[in-house]
Amino acid sequence: MIAVLQRVSEARVEVEGRITGAIGAGLLMLVCAEPGDTELQAEKLVQKVLKLRIFSDAAGKMNLSLQDTGGGLLIVSQFTLAADVSGGNRPSFTGAAGAEQGRRLYEHTLHAARQRHPDVQCGEFGADMKVSLLNDGPVTIPMRIP
Question: What positions carry a catalytic annotation?
Answer without folding.
Answer: 78-80
